[in-house]
Write the structure tokens for this entry.
Amino acid sequence: MPVGRDGWFEAARPIRVEGGIKARSKRGSIGEQWWSRRFIDILERVCDPGRLSRGRAYARRGQVLDLDLGPGLAKARVQGSRPKPYDVSVRITAYGEREWAGLIEALAAQALHRAKLLAGEMPPEIEDVFAGCGLPLFPGERGLDMDCTCPDWGFPCKHLSAVLYLLAEAFDDDPFRVLAWRGMAREALLDALRRSGGEAGAATAGDAGPPGLLDVADVPFAERLGDFYEPGASAARLGPPPGPEGHPDLLLRALDPPKVKARHIPLLDLLRPAYRAFAAGENEEAEGSVS
């Protein structure tokens, strides 16, 4: 066979398929959220640009027939120019029970990270938590074991590239798939974080530190009859309640997200701007009263 751009065989148009998985992105880069872009950035740094470009075209044409993601393994079938689809596999190290126990303990120790995860968000700082445990979140240059049954000797071939790009879009849809690939399913992680959060609170209850919002002395009512309705501080000293700076929507992050959407937009995504606007308005009003 004459030599083509894809190796020792002549490149040919792939057989068109119906019902394949098509990338949502129609042009430019693939991956919208920081975690999917982080994954793509690694690929584009170590993989052949030409094959990645043809892989994007395959992903957008719907040449990937199916994609299955499990602990440590992503499997797919990709229709190329030959009648039989190619089998593609992408493997990474799935962490075991001991590794995940340490990761969950480290995540639960960070209240904001825990709140974001429980709210269905992936905090960027989670990479640092993984690194602190000596366990990378994303695979590095040698962290991916990839294989395709096509005859192309390039690495990765366009079939692998197509699957990798669709993986990035799957991560866009649900960041917990990144963690599931590493061996921890979403519900198992959230249940563990809820349990560890309660244990952490009990363990640190006796530690010295500033009083929390609900740390109120329990005084019998009979002993407070004389001053029960008097404020504990003068009005001039009253201000906004203490809380994490810069996170007016922390309550939304800490609660389980309701399965409610408006025009296909999750309810929490609609409420967060309102919470932030209220906080900004209160800050402006407070600054005006001081001046």
The first strand starts at residue 64 and ends at 70. Residues 67 and 76 are 4 Å apart (CA to CA). The chain has two domains: 34-192, 247-291. The two ends are 81 Å apart (CA to CA).
